[in-house]
Amino acid sequence: MSYQILDAQEKHLDQLEELEKVCFSVPWTREQLKSQLPGKQHCFLVAVENETLLGYVGMMYVLDEGYISNVAVAPQQRRNGIGDALIEELMNRAEEFGLSFVTLEVRESNRPAIALYEKHGFQRVGLRKKYYDLPKEDAILMTKFLK
Predict the structure, then answer these.
(1) Which residues are catalytic?
(2) CA-CA-CA-CA torsion sign (44, 45, 50, 54)
(3) What is the mean pLDDT of residues 109-135?
């Protein structure tokens, strides 16, 4: 598999929208996705192979704090290292931005995602009760400290 990790662009929005619908019970709208495109205080990366979107990761940051908004990999592309590569590049960017930490929420039942984040040095630091809908579920708060 030969894919590239790139900054998301408007041309990716159609595929981002479709991936959202496949991966999440409450998908973000096109407008929400567009608001996350790279720029001041946003880092939004996509994994692309021959113009086909395989996955993405988004992060908002302010001052020295980073907040991962979503991570998604197309179901048929999972277990191929794409999530790994996206998180690795995102953490490289976080260090370039001089962030002190990066944090995220993950469904308590999402064991593969939790394992991925732990592999990249994220630690469980809290629990957000009934954070997710459809189904209602707690979120584990995970943080990676960079400084």
Answers:
(1) 105, 117
(2) negative
(3) 96
